[in-house]
TrEMBL record:
One of its GO terms (molecular function) is kinase activity. It comes from the Bacteria. It catalyses: ATP + protein L-histidine = ADP + protein N-phospho-L-histidine. Keywords: ATP-binding, Kinase, Membrane, Nucleotide-binding, Transferase, Transmembrane, Transmembrane helix, Two-component regulatory system. The chain crosses the membrane at residues 67-88, 100-119, 125-146, 158-181, 193-219. The keyword Endoplasmic reticulum does not apply. This is histidine kinase. InterPro entries: HATPase_C_sf (IPR036890), HATPase_dom (IPR003594), His_kinase_dom (IPR005467), Sig_transdc_His_kin-like_C (IPR004358). It is an enzyme of class 2 (transferase). Residues 237-446 form the Histidine kinase domain. Pfam families: HATPase_c (PF02518). Its EC number is 2.7.13.3.
Amino acid sequence: MLFVWIALWAVAIIVWLSEPRSPVNRRLGLLAFSGGAGACAATLANVVIPTLEDGGTLAHALYNVQALSSLFCYYGVPYAFLLFALAYRPVVLSYMLAKLVPVVLLVPIAGFVLLTPPYNEVKPVTFEAIVWWAIPHFAIGAWAVLSKKTQHYARSSSHWIICLAVLPPTLFAMLMSYVLPSLGMRQMWRFNTWFVGMGIAVFVIGLFTYGFLGVRVLIDRRRLDSTLRAVTSGTAILHHAIKNDVGKMRLFGEKMKAYAESTDQRELLEDVNAVMNASRHIQEMISRVHRRTEDLIIRPVETELGDLIRSVIKSCEPKLESIRVSIEVPAGWRCNVDAAQVGEAIHNVIANAIEAMNGAGTLQVSLRASKRELTVEVRDSGGGMDKTQARKALEPFYTTKRGQDTNFGLGLPYAYYVMRKHGGDLLVRSRVGEGTSVMFTFPKRSIAAMHAVVDPVDFGRSANV
C-alpha cells in the first residue's frame, strides 16, 4: 500500500501542476489524492502504528490521521470521480449552476458523516447505506466518460488512454470497497492494489506516448519554447555580427569596384561583382531567418476569423493546380487577434500542405467551436510523415524538403510561436500515406471570442474550389 499511496499522490501532483486552471485536471487530481488517502490510512494502520507504543500520544495522533484519511477516501473517491466525469464531458450550465453543483453534491456526504456511526477500524463507514449513494456516482461518471465524443482522430488516442487509466481502477474499487463490503465481505480493498498499479502503468505509458490530459503537451511545449528562445537570441546575435561584416565587405567591395572600373580591369571587375553578389545573398538569407525568429510583438484587433481564413485561402489559389479545396468555416466569430501574424501562420501551413500534395489531392480547411476553444484545422491528403518526422515538425530549422535553399524549416515553428503569443497551441498529427493535419487551437477567453448572428446563408458556409 505504501507504493499505491506514493504513486497516487505523485499522479495527483503531476496532473495538478500540468494545467492548474483546468477543471478536468483539478478534479482528476482530487480523485487520485482521495485514492491515495485510502492507501495512506492502510499504511498507517498496518505498518506504522503497530510499531509504536500502545496508547502513546504519537500513536493516538496517527490514529486520528488514519481515520480522517480513510473517511476522505470512502467519501472522496465517488465524489471526485463524478466531478471529474462532469468536467471531462462538460454539460452546458450557467456560471452560477456550475458553481453550485460541487456544493450540492457535498450535502449527502455531510448527511452520512453526521447521521451514521463514527469511524472504527472494523467498519469505517456504514457500507449498507453508503453503497446506495456511491454506486450512482460511479455509474453516472463512467457513462459520462465513455460517452464523450472526440472531435478529431488525433485526440481519440488520448481519450482512450484516459479511459484505460481511470475507469478500470475506479470501477474495481467500487466493487471491492463498496459493493462487497455492503454484503459483509470486509477487507476486500486489499485487492485494489493490482488494478491501481495497472492504471498507474497506463498513465506512465500514455504520458510518454500520446499524452495524458495535456501533461505531455506541457513538456513538449516547454521544450519548444526554450528552443525558440535560444534560436531567437542566437539568430539576433548572428544577424548583427554578419550584417556588420557584410557591410565592411560591401564598403571595400565598392572601392575595389571603382578601382577596377577606373583602371579598366574587366576580370577584376567580374570578381568584385561576384563577391558583392555573394555578400548581398548572405545578407538576404540571414535577414529572412532573423525575421522569422525574432520576438513577435502581437497587436490584437477585432477580426472576423472566418473572413481572415477565407482571404488566406484565396491568396493561395494560384498554387492549387488540381487540388480540390473543401472549406467549412462558419461566419460570425469575432476575435481579438493579430490578423497579420495569424494570417501568415495559416498561410505557412496551407503552403506546406499544397507542396505536400504535388498539385493533386484534397485540402480541407475548417473552423470548429467547442465550449472553451476555437480550432482551425488544415488537413491535406499528401504523403504524410512518420512519428519521428511529425514529432520534430515544430523544431526550428527541421524540414523534410530537401534541395530547396529557400526553405529554412521555420514555417511551422513560426506558426507555433504565433499561437503561443495568442495563448493557444499548434498541434500536428500525421500518418504516412494518410496526409497531415495541423490544428490551431485558440482558447476563447484568451482572444475574447464572440459569436455574432449572421445571415443563415453565410453561417456554416461550405465551399469547394
